[in-house]
């Protein structure tokens, strides 16, 4: 993070149990949330320059965590997410997207919002209907949605 001057970093598949802030290196604090099974897990690593400006940490689940940071321009809400994979149940997927929707709706409209994470999507080369959003440089096949 220091070499690239990254001040905040969203992480997925952390697989740590519990939920607490941990100093992982000089001047870097990791806020995480994980379950006893050591599956999934999300975290946000924060540089010391932002640590004292964190106004709240909300651990929604082992797939969603958010920080609200006070900046000179206003509040900045950062959300780290890890979406269920293709092999997960429809219920797990629905729960994740409902929780994410609730989180997004709960963020004050005046906040800057950043969502970083792994949505487990595989985008194919076919860009028909998505020309403005898709460069056509994906894998051969698009992930099937269940």
From TrEMBL:
InterPro entries: Endo/exonu/phosph_ase_sf (IPR036691), Swc5/CFDP1/2 (IPR027124). It comes from the Eukaryota. PANTHER family: BUCENTAUR RELATED, ENDONUCLEASE_EXONUCLEASE_PHOSPHATASE DOMAIN-CONTAINING PROTEIN. This is Endonuclease/exonuclease/phosphatase domain-containing protein. The lineage of its organism: Eukaryota, Metazoa, Ecdysozoa, Nematoda, Chromadorea.
């Amino acid at each position: 993070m220091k070499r690239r001057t990254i001040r905040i970093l969203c992480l997925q598949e952390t697989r740590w149990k519990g939920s607490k802030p941990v100093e992982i290196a000089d001047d870097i604090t990791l806020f995480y949330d994980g379950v006893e099974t050591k599956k999934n897990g999300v975290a946000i690593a924060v540089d010391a320059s932002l640590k004292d400006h964190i106004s709240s940490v909300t651990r929604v689940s082992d797939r969603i965590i958010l920080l609200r940071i006070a900046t000179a321009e206003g509040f900045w809400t950062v959300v780290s997410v890890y979406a269920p994979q293709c092999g997960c149940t429809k219920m797990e997927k629905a729960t994740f997207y409902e929780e994410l929707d609730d989180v997004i709706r709960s963020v004050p409209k005046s906040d800057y919002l950043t969502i970083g994470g792994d949505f487990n999507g595989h985008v194919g080369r076919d860009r028909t209907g998505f020309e403005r959003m898709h460069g056509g440089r994906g894998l051969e096949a698009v992930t099937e949605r269940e």
